Amino acid sequence: MKRIDIWFVVGVLLVLLGILMFIGVVKAAPTYSNVGQNLTYVGMNGSIELRAKWTPGPNPYEVSEGVYVDYLDVGSQDSNPSCIAFNDDGTKLYILGGDHNCVYEYNLSTPYDISTGVYNDCLNISDLGKYTRCIAFNDDGTKLYVTYSDPEDYPDKVYEYNLTTPWDVSTGVYNDYVNITQDAGIRGIAFNNNGTKLYLVGSEYDQVYEYNLTTPWDVSTRVYVDSLNIEDQDIQPKDIEFNNDGTKMYMSGQWNEMVYEYELSTPYDVSTGTYVDSLNTSSLGVPYGIAFNDNGTKFYVAILLSGKVYEYNLTARLDSAILYVNITGSYQAVDTIDLNDSLTAKWSNFTYTPTTCNKVVDWKITANDSSGTSNTTPIGTFYVMPYLYSTSDSSIISSIASCSSKHNATITPIGSGDVNLTLYMPYIVRNATFKECNYEVTEDADRVKISPSTEYCAVYVTNLEAESGTSFYVKESTGLKAYPPSNLPAAVASAGLVIIIIYTIATRKRS
User: Fold this and answer.
1) In Å, what is the CA distance from 243 to each residue of 47, 302, 361?
2) What is the rounded average pLDDT for all residues in the chain?
3) pLDDT tens digits, residue range 95-104?
4) What is the DSSP letter of 128?
5) Cβ–Cβ contacts within 10 Å for residue 282, how many?
């Protein structure tokens, strides 16, 4: 393939990835932290802890998995926020106040973080009357729409304002209105992503109404198309929103204090909607206005008579974590921990007991979540050694002999005349620190005697010869080998198994 063709393919793939991310198809897997182990060297039949902490990844537009994060108190402006909206980059939040019929504008120093909101200005729309219900903007912030439903004055209306400065509501100028005859209880308002469709939710007949706009964003050109009956979910619907590709619709309901999610088999065609899930807000209160950030990873809801707007993170639920170890050349799943559908960070702490004499064991942990994504930790390594609980010669011999046939680390001691050698061996009492140990080698001997001591050292041994008491001998033909601490891991990987023995001073002498 020519180089230009390769770069063309790469470019196409990047574009496709960008499109998928934009429409919310790409979902982030759970992330790991604090990956670790409590030991580097572990005795055979001992235990090692292998762990990782998992944080759920975003699950865009899945409101049922919302986790409350923070809120903005708007009570100083209006105690009854009834509808909310953002500008196109999340640096401004707008709230329709039910008490004072004003559209309030807040500046957000951190985009889409409502806790950073500072009140800026408002557009007074009290001349419309006291029954304003909800607001929406066009795509460039030059138009503001307000729904109005007076129970004593039929038909309901949608009012349109022109903003001379985009997204600055204080520059709003009344332009026109249209009558809505499908329902006498119009509440929420929404558009599709290019302004060719208008949607209104009505509480008289519990319907979401869909209209085609022959001129984008011009509600006076509306043509009624169809509706979706939502009374099985709630008989007091308040607001509606869509995800960014029109395959999902959301509705807030007062009767059950829920936010409902619907799947649309045909994007932006509400008649194809099917109810799938919900978010219960009863712990906060009755949900009115609802909104998302630009990529659906955050959800916002204004609560009736609370003076507050609440923010949720939309995350996947952690499902399970699986421990894999590589003992035979391929990874095998050896244990699973249920992460209990957690919406917050959770530990997976595995306790693993090696029962083989493999000198090097690699491990990793994989976690998956409700979005169908998974992630795997980096590979860790530990070294397995027989750990001697010796009470007699036979137990010492059997413990070491269980590995002697699998790992041959036979190095003959060297020396001429009477010499003293200082060798470095790992100081291992179920940990990974190192300590210097000594033993003496005398020339005219045929075996090395290892006697008890208070320290723990590791040496390579094979071919044991028992003797009475608590001592035992390593035959001269077998010998000893100890590695400097800095070389130990490489030595373990290439030469043989380190065997922990509860002895230190080794004196080579005549029998």
Assistant:
1) 49, 18, 46
2) 77
3) 999 999 999 9
4) G
5) 10
Cα separation, 478 vs 190, in Å, equals: 83
Amino acid at residue number 249 = M
- Name the amino acid, one letter, at 497: L
Dihedrals φ, ψ of 63, to 5°?
Answer: -65, -25
DSSP 368-402: EETTS-EEEPPPEEEEEEEB---SSHHHHHHHHHH
pTM of the entire structure? 0.71
Confidence of residue 462 (pLDDT cuts 50, 70, 90): very low
**500: helix, coil or strand?**
strand
Distances (CA, A) of 371 to 17, 37, 62, 314, 365: 18, 28, 9, 11, 18
Please, are residues 90 and 101 in contact by the beta-carbon 8 Å criterion?
Answer: no
Between 123 and 458, the more confident residue is: 123
Q: Please say whether the dihedral angle defined by the alpha carbons of residues 182, 184, 190 and 191, taken in this order, is positive or negative.
A: positive
352 falls in which pLDDT band (50, 70, 90)?
very high
Catalogue the E-assigned strands of 255-360. Answer: 258-264, 273-280, 287-292, 298-303, 308-314, 318-326, 331-342, 346-352
**Residues 197, 208: contact at Cβ < 8 Å?**
no
Q: What is the pLDDT of residue 318?
A: 96
DSSP-derived 3-state class of residue 85: strand
Local confidence band at 47 (pLDDT 50, 70, 90 cut-offs): confident
Question: What's the first-to-final CA gap in the chain, in angstroms?
Answer: 75
Q: What is the DSSP letter of 30?
A: P
Q: Is the pLDDT of residue 392 over 90?
A: no
Query: What is the spatial distance between Cα 286 and Cα 237, in angstroms, rounded to a whole number?
Result: 11
Q: CA angle 287-315-271, nearest 5°?
A: 55
491, 385 contact by CB (below 8 A) = no
- Run of H or E residues at 438: strand 435-441
